[in-house]
Amino acid sequence: MKLQRKNRLRALSVSALAVTSALVLSACGSDDNTGGDGSEGGQKDAGAADIKCDGDGNLIASGSSAQKNAVDAWVQAYQQACSGTKINYKATGSGAGIQEFLQGKTAFAGSDSVLKEDEVEQSAKVCKSGKAVNLPLLAGPVAIGYNLSGVDDLVLDASTLAKIFDSKITKWDDAAIKKLNPDADLPSTKIQAFHRSDESGTTDNFTSYLAAAASGDWKHEPGKAWAAKGGQSADGSAGVASNVKQTEGAIGYFELSYATGNNIPAVQLDTGAGDPVEATVENSSAAVSAGKIVGKDGDLAMELDYATKEEGAYPIILVTYEIACDKGNKAETLPATKSFLKYAASEDGQKVLADIDYAPMPEEIITQVRKAVDSLA
């Protein structure tokens, strides 16, 4: 098993390097919008995904750092097929991405939280004849990564996590942690809890889980901004993962792809089910499938059950939305926006997600997303 894991991580690293190289080349390339064969708009490379190219020039988007690894993979495949479009996605965090979209700076935004009512109202200034809508394109587990020498398997529950991240449990050999891990050799090392410094949908989903599953121990309102006192902050999921990897006694929350990509072990959750639940794509898919669409009038916002006790369902999950205008998109970016989002929502686009530790959207939901993307105007 350990050898398989190492090989898998090595494959992920190679994939990440390939994606990064593709992005660097696209960012530093010329403004020549011809394909490799000299034709206008760029043509598909042999063996590329079935992508219908439309529009050209630069497509700027920003937001969720949780989806960055997925967007990188989509961008790599899309730009191989459509060399006339250069896509620049900035992982600024969900909060900053929404604000840039509402200011008209980007073609679309990525967010791990649905738009608030006042944000939908503000979108009328950008979406001249419509409003911004939430389009769920991927999902996945928020892993609780840790760095504790000699402890290869760690089980925690919502109550214990709430106390750790609220600075009420400060040592790894605390009685509550020992009770959940009777066979582990837990040191008296100080707990170094890391949270996001930027407004983040990952934080929103993690704190929504704590509020739902440990309401007696987590008294803070869920939200994109970290509300609890204490702990240490870092920018983006990459920043939190990097700090956990480098700090003995550390614990933090980030998407599973950041855990596997950095070889960081993840906590198993005691949800009250028969067995602790691992943070895996399959286990998060079980929880996502139990969610439902609650948005109206073309909006596809979802409601998730963070307190589920279903066997094999990992409850700390997020759904990442691409946010665009249902009507009133800028004419110069609409064709490329629709083309790129169509690919991301396509069967080919969804297939790449499981290989990089994201969960594809359930068929009954992604079918609705495809229709919504087709209707963008």
Automatic annotation (TrEMBL):
Keyword terms: Phosphate transport, Signal, Transport
Record bears the keyword Oxidoreductase: no
SUPFAM superfamilies with a match to the protein in the record: Periplasmic binding protein-like II
Span of domain PBP: 55-347
GO biological process, one term: phosphate ion transmembrane transport
GO molecular function, one term: phosphate ion binding
Positions annotated to bind phosphate: S64, S65, A66, S94, D112, S200, G201, T202
Coiled coil: none
GO cellular component: ATP-binding cassette (ABC) transporter complex
Signal peptide (residue range): 1-26
Superkingdom classification of source: Bacteria
Similarity section: Belongs to the PstS family.
Alphabetized NCBIfam families for the sequence: 3a0107s03
Name of the protein: Phosphate-binding protein
Encoding gene, per UniProt annotation: pstS
